[in-house]
TrEMBL record:
InterPro entries from the UniProt entry: Aldolase_TIM, Ribul_P_3_epim, Ribul_P_3_epim-like, RibuloseP-bd_barrel
Key words, A-Z: Carbohydrate metabolism, Cobalt, Isomerase, Manganese, Metal-binding, Zinc
Gene for this chain: LOC115889344
Source organism: Sitophilus oryzae
Annotated binding of a divalent metal cation, by residue: H38, D40, H72, D178
Cofactor names: Zn(2+); Co(2+); a divalent metal cation; Fe(2+)
Protein name in UniProt: Ribulose-phosphate 3-epimerase
Leading EC class: isomerase
Enzymatic reactions: D-ribulose 5-phosphate = D-xylulose 5-phosphate
Sites where the protein binds substrate: S13, H72, G149, F150, G151, G152, G180, G200, T201
Length: 229
């Protein structure tokens, strides 16, 4: 990645797709302009829901060898899944700091040693100060704009100051937003400084995925251009 400029990246959350057609749906998203796939992994403990784990990711990787896979680990014990996810071909391992605050740095190191990029995720109730000391050890910070664990929630605009603070202090950091992001909320995300956009329902449920992805991208790139000028 060019460290001298920010890039807009759109990563649909495939959880909203028809999971019985996971490969076809994922490939269609990539064909329609997605930059990466955002894979939501939930363990039934950290969040109430249960989704899929490394065996599913591994099967998907065999079918889609070259795409960038980000796993969003909504799990109580992120250490447990580092090796299996690396083996499954995950590109970036994004884990929540809340259950592992005393172990964030060693976990970052383990993720990197396993050959994956490091993402650190914050729930809406977690302030930015909780992650400040770890930012230089991560490739990306994920600011959740809904409570993790369920799709289709309303976007929380009051999370935007976290994004603004990160962008102001770390001009070249990859900052991801996830939750309720769509055509109606993308402007707030882009203007706050997010450059990695996770959208589930807004893209998956669209009649024309390609035009929705293009529209999200255009809004973000307009804001990035202002930052880079």
């Amino acid at each position: 990645m060019d460290r001298n400029s920010l890039k807009c990246k759109i990563g649909p959350s495939i959880l909203n797709s028809d999971l019985s057609q996971l490969y076809a749906e994922s490939q269609r998203l990539l064909d329609n302009g997605a930059d990466y796939l955002h894979l939501d992994v939930m363990d039934g403990h950290f969040v109430p829901n249960l989704t899929f784990g490394h065996p599913v990711v591994k099967c998907l990787r065999k079918k889609i060898p070259h795409a960038f896979f980000e796993t969003h680990m909504m799990v109580q014990n992120p250490e447990q899944w580092i090796e299996p996810m690396a083996d499954a071909g995950v590109s970036q391992y994004t884990f929540h700091i809340e259950p592992v605050l005393k172990d964030v740095l060693p976990l970052c190191r383990k993720v990197r040693e396993a050959g994956m990029k490091v993402g650190l995720a914050l729930k809406p109730g977690t302030g930015i100060e909780a992650v400040r000391q770890f930012i230089n050890h991560a490739d990306m910070i994920l600011i959740m704009t809904v409570e993790p664990g369920f799709g289709g929630q309303k976007f929380m605009n009051d999370m935007m100051p976290k994004v603004q603070w990160l962008r102001h202090n770390y001009p070249l950091l990859d900052i991801e937003v996830d939750g309720g992001v769509g055509l109606n909320t993308i402007t707030a995300c882009a203007e706050a400084g997010a450059n990695m956009i996770v959208a589930g329902t807004a893209i998956i449920g669209a009649c024309d995925q390609k035009s929705v992805i293009a529209s999200l991208r255009e809004t973000v790139e307009r804001s990035i251009h202002k930052c880079n000028v």
